[in-house]
Design a protein that fits this description.
The structure is a homotetramer of 337-residue chains. By secondary structure, chain A is of the alpha/beta class. Chain A folds into two domains: 62 residues, Alpha-Beta Plaits (2-Layer Sandwich); 259 residues, Aldolase class I (TIM Barrel). Chain A is 35% helix and 18% strand. In chain A, the strands form three sheets. An eight-stranded parallel barrel of chain A has the order 7-8-9-10-11-12-13-14, surrounded by seven helices. In chain A, strands 2-3-1-4 form a four-stranded antiparallel beta sheet.
Chain lengths: 337, 337, 337, 337
């Protein structure tokens, strides 16, 4: 925020504005440009009382250098956004369940998994062709070949497909072969990538960074929306804390908070959020009870031989059982499946 | 954890077990002693799927080499513990809901709140006579006078009362006036206090420290159990993270994890866990869906004039509405109210 | 903070004050008592512009319900406090180095260590008779016997002794046998204990909780000071973060920040702060360069057989080498040894 | 890590090694294969004192079973790497100080700052043409125009220039106009970007992510090295914790740890690491005392009118004073300036 003083403002008036800003808990930075004095307020400008500042002698106007959640926020868009992918709606009455393996490993594996999760009740398929991994020596995904597999599997099964994009240059290839572009946690603040997916109309599934506040998540959504793509789904997938029993700490409060702050759909990934197969079901139930619009579940036909994340993947049988247990919970919170 | 192979196990079977352990995210260490091969699993043995390992060809048994939770752990006490306070059971089929103000402020306030929450369906009353506060200049509770008020209110309403203990010397006075001794988050590792409440038979409600791991919480329960008091209730109430939208980050995964690791009842405090009134209901629903044995809810007859925590307290009307919404969720996860 | 309205204040005036409080980033809680309306401001009352609020129509006065760092803060006590223990001053020009084992194990061990660290240049001895441990099954210290050993060792060597107190009841026994009462990280918010050590005149070494902000540390110091004991030394010993290479993350910025916020001496514990022997020296040098008034160093005559914390203890030879390396660093930042 | 015992080792010697491993905080797993006994150390093998273990009777050699930092690690490259930029060496005896504004704002500002920091003793200039910002509405840098300014300023002053790269496509343009490519904290795990800078020979300054472990930082360095660019400088710039007094918590222990784990140069950014101008000097002194190879300091000719990060920028006069205070500290730790 920046306070523009009148050209006639006295030194005393300038000092008073600066002191008021400091009293309100920000740092004041006085700048003189040409004949004009402006006072920047750094720190947490949302703490400032604009009306009070505007009323001080010598103040001409207040410029917002920061406009949180202009497009992602509820204030400007009270109605919830529904993201549509073919027949599937995300953010409406019906829950949307994405299921599938962490990584595309082969066409056989993807087709078998897709058929299994479809029969178990999933509404969309997930699977990564590009896998960002901490180590350059870990399996990085099948790449373009993986995209081809996803394309053939979605045609064979009719399930829409969500898959992670890691490089701005891949946008044009990916929009041909997948239905939803996923931005992974590590890339949540990769602004070049956010802007690239903002320039197409394919829906984007934006995962919260493991180190990101909800405000930062919404600001990253804002990067996409600001480029013209309004089809953004937010995804809580756990944050990094000191607790080590779980891979991440799933922030369940993020669900009702994001729904309150934003009009965008909110889904939950209990597989990454816990990193433990046996916690997926109770956390999936909790997420729906808390108001989530959908779930992202890792399912593998043979978890013990999965190339990544097998320890947090469900078998198709266990996935189907989870869907059965979800139904009555969805029902009591007024959602359909 | 150590997998003991049968004497007849082949090299191929041994290698498969080792590979499976590695796939599950641990390191396998093969040891041959006499004619017997054993395979140690190091790292995070809690990630291992014991049933799966036990089912592999050649495996004879699985030994736990690490048993930190001797008394609090499931291994030694497979049946869930039910804590009984008069007619109330905590940890059985029925959910136990504790409701009441953060602090005892006056007899009128407590009696009015107690009657309101009882009529709303609460099973027990909460209210602090001793309030540990960050600042020595904040309201510290009514102390002994508060205990007398709690005693009169529980007699008048028949509701059992839980209240925080902060000083080992207060044990004898408190066991006369309250039904459940609460250990607050700041005192979770105050071992003098844990040992003092371990030497009586009054049930203890042990809240997780705001920066404590689940292992540390269970170890603190162990301090109480080791003194002879087996009536311990664990309480998840949020941990400290970088996120600032909520007062704490409620660790929903702690619920199923604690139930799996321990036989003790687990309840959730969505009031402290979120610090925001409007999040109490969705998080309470989520906690029950995730398997919690009960809830601890702040209710105040006049939240806006509460001496502490008013911003996270429900009115009696809102509490009653919450109880109504909880009922069907409890029902679908097989719990009664 | 609480705004008291005039008895004649209109509903419109009350509403305006409440709205102003909200605009300034706090929550307003309107309370009516008798004929008087007061408005509580919850959240971060330090953000509020008192002058602005006082100037609103209908406002009579503003009561501070919170006065951060009244006694611990620089504003009320601009001159640095020097804590004196016999000939030793902590907080003056000379650095104060406390050295010794984590735990008192035997008289031989303590005497040998004390002589070694004295000859290496230490100014005071550290050693715990009461050891708060996460597990009730770990070594908990020699207790009263340990205190007797410390007493004999300080008489034999002339070194003042700092030792941890864990129970309010131990104050009278400890002030007879040790020179400085240490409050450990786990007990930083054990207010019963803080008040107990506040009621004697023995200096207190207050360690920052592993989960505590600097504000909370200073508030805990305030608990001691408010009871009348002005001899408090603050100690940074690392906080809990997601990083696992080190036992804790030593917050080096805490040193200049605490010196700026408070008049109390600030020392650093690189042994617990890093948990790794090879990091003690570089972090000790860094702490002195950043302005610390002293250090707390774990030294053991035989680290590999130490009953606790051996992996972070220096040998006497390595301690002596560290003292040699510290001297020129102390010199260039204007401190003596 | 696995300790290989001599064939003649006695049971007593084996037991002592195992006990020593446990004392150092790991789990020991004894394995007998053929006539040979080996002892695996699981848990946190980095805590083990290799030299001590190697010196125990009966030990033949120590094998590392885990070598995550193949190219970045010390084991494969014992000699420290010196990164060279023209006449400047980073990682040798001389400290390297980078100074300049957060963002390139204009040619006048950059030229004035460059001349001021050069006269103050800086060895290189920093300044961002591309600024990744949380909000899409914040100033994002001058972009290509900023690069042109940097190019002209380095020619005018002879100072090498470091500037942030945010998009893989910018590599070819940037290697023409700047001397060191900076990867910012938000992009530390943007693998497409890491690989792109790995394919050129321009030195890379890799900043630690604000919630990244040291292992992840080294793995990101590995991504660059694995592409063939060996000129990588690591930068500690603070991590995200619960403490809010500082913008980030500068992890001072990272300096000696990274120097021990890796052969790459390590520099520290006290400006971002603290976010407060008055802490820059003490933390800069601490960083050098802890063994840093250099510093990254924000300097602005007029901090109060800076478009970003003014509150953490030094004036040229204060920068010069800092350099004066650094000199004797550098001297006592054996570094030149």
């Amino acid at each position: 925020m920046r306070i523009v003083m009148r050209p006639t403002a006295t030194v005393r008036e300038i000092a008073r504005v600066a002191a008021t800003i400091e009293t309100m808990g920000c740092q004041a930075h006085i700048a003189r440009e040409d004949k004009r004095t402006t006072i920047g307020a750094a720190g947490s400008p949302q703490q400032l009382d604009r009306d009070h500042l505007l009323a001080l002698p010598g103040v001409q106007e207040i410029l917002d250098t920061r406009m949180p959640f202009k497009l992602a926020g509820r204030e400007f868009h009270a109605q919830p956004t529904t993201v549509r992918v073919g027949d599937l709606s995300i953010g409406g009455d019906a829950l949307a369940v994405f299921a599938g393996p962490c990584a595309v490993e082969s066409e056989d594996q993807m087709l078998a998994t897709a058929q299994a999760v479809k029969s178990g009740g999933a509404h969309a398929l997930r699977g990564g062709a590009f896998k960002p991994r901490t180590s350059p020596y870990s399996f990085q995904g099948l790449g373009r070949e993986g995209l081809q597999i996803l394309d053939r599997v979605r045609r064979a099964t009719g399930l829409p497909v969500a898959s992670e994009i890691t490089h701005p240059e891949d946008v044009s290839a990916m929009v041909e072969t997948v239905d939803i572009l996923q931005i992974g946690a590590r890339n949540m603040q990769n602004y070049a990538l956010l802007q690239a997916v903002g320039r197409v109309q394919t829906p984007v599934l934006l995962k919260r960074g493991m180190m990101s506040t909800l405000e930062e998540l919404l600001m990253s959504a804002e990067y996409i929306l600001a480029q013209g793509n309004s089809q953004v789904i937010l995804c809580e997938r756990g944050i990094r804390t000191f607790e080590t029993y779980t891979r991440n700490t799933l922030d369940i409060s993020a669900v009702p908070l994001l729904k309150q702050l934003s009009h965008l759909p909110v889904i939950v990934d209990p597989s990454h959020g816990t990193g433990r197969r046996e916690l997926v079901e109770p956390i999936a139930l909790a997420a729906v009870a808390a108001g989530a619009d959908g779930l992202l579940i890792e399912v593998h036909v043979d978890p013990d031989s999965a190339l990544s994340d097998g320890h947090q993947s469900l078998t198709p049988a266990r996935f189907e059982a989870l869907m059965e247990r979800l139904r009555p919970v969805a029902d009591v919170v007024g959602r359909t499946m």
